[in-house]
Structures are given as C-alpha cells and as structure tokens.
Amino acid sequence: EDQVTQSPEALRLQEGESSSLNCSYTVSGLRGLFWYRQDPGKGPEFLFTLYSAGEEKEKERLKATLTKKESFLHITAPKPEDSATYLCAVLSGGYNKLIFGAGTRLAVHP
Amino acid sequence: DAGITQSPRYKITETGRQVTLMCHQTWSHSYMFWYRQDLGHGLRLIYYSAAADITDKGEVPDGYVVSRSKTENFPLTLESATRSQTSVYFCASEYREGTEAFFGQGTRLTVV
Q: Which of B97, B101, B82 is closest to B43 using CA atoms?
C-alpha cells in the first residue's frame, strides 16, 4: 500500500536556526514527489516537484532533496514568514493520484 | 479574476440535509479534484475528473456525488450529510495529470 509519512508533526525554530523536514514514502513506482506550503485558512501552494533520486531544487531559503526512500525540505536561516504547514505528496505508478502526508507545522519565532 | 474559487467559504448544515459545495476555475484545466482535510489525515481524495462528463472515485467517495457538465465547474454534493463529513474541503485543478496542482481557498463544513 502506498504511504507517505512526514516528521516531525510540529517544529518550532528560532529565526535563523536552520533545520530539515522529512518525508518518507513507500510507493509502487515513484512518478514524482511534491512539496506544498499551506498557510492557516488557505489552500496548499505548490513549492517543488522532484522526479528522481539525487535531484535537488531550491527556492529562496528552501531546498528540497530526494532519495529512493525519502525527501527532505531544508530550511536555511528561516524567518517568521516561513511559518506554515508543509505538505509532502507522492504520485505513484500504481495509484495515479497524489497521496499526501499529514504535514509538518513549522513555527519560526523572532 | 483568474484562478480557482470555492463557495461558500463556511457552511453549517444539519444531519441529513443535502449540501452542495461549488468549485470554479478559469484556466480551462482538464483535471479537477475534491479533497477533504482532517487533523491527522492530511488531504484525502474524494473524487476527481479528467474532463467534462468524466469523473471517478478517489480514496473516500462514500456519501458524496460529483458532476462536471462544464470544464470550469466541479460541484461536490453531500446527499445526506453526516457528522463524520465535518471537514475542510479543497478543490484543485491541474493542467495535466501529475503536474502542479492549484488549490482553492477551501470550504469549512460543519454538520450538526
């Protein structure tokens, strides 16, 4: 059964304190791994798509990486405006629709 | 304005009533989706549509009905609402299956 697990559930950081969020997955043939950001009361907003192990993508203070079993979202020198829930989703060959993890709630304090 | 819009944003209904959540997109995307989001479960797919008049079940379709007579609209109907359907519902669209999804702002539904 395809499964996506995100950890930690919640993370509190001080401004400037770098860290990483984890997304581990078991799927039958990964076709893509997606990262979304969700602010309170809003819909998810697309960040990155990764397609193969070893691939990396960056956007401002965020960097996403992918291995055969997991993906990391690295946050470098975060700011309070980076506070949000970060969602990971996978697209598998077996079930041709996105499967989402439960998300990581990130709070960055000044 | 261009984009994907959901209505209403908030809805309170009684058990057993029929309620319809609306979704409209202006991009002419082929694919549209309905998800529900509950604490601890993340987003779960209810129904999706590959084009007008083509719909299919997702992970949690029971108690829901969809239709898509026009490309831009994808309404979700709860035929007889139950308390377990209290949730936040998100509509999304994709230009091509498996690509970046664009989400609406969500509808918070409470069934009392």
A: B101
A28 token code pair:
């039958």
Per-residue H/E/C for A32-63: EEEEEEECCCCCCEEEEEECCCCCEEEECCEE
Which residue among B42, B44, B99 places its CB closest to the CB of A103?
A: B42
Tens digits of pLDDT across chain A (110 residues):
889 999 999 999 999 999 999 999 998 889 999 999 999 999 999 999 999 999 999 999 999 999 999 999 999 999 999 999 999 999 987 777 899 999 999 999 99
Instruction: Specify whether the CB–CB gap between A103 and A37 falls below 8 A.
Output: no
> Residue A17: which of A83, A84, A60, A75 has the closest Cα?
A75
Instruction: Determine how many CB atoms are found less than 10 A away from the CB of residue B8.
Output: 13
Are the beta carbons of B42 and A46 separated by less than 8 Å? no
Q: Which residue has the tokens 């079993």?
A: A69
Nearest CA in chain A to B5: A43
Nearest CA-CA distance, residue B65 and chain A, Å: 19
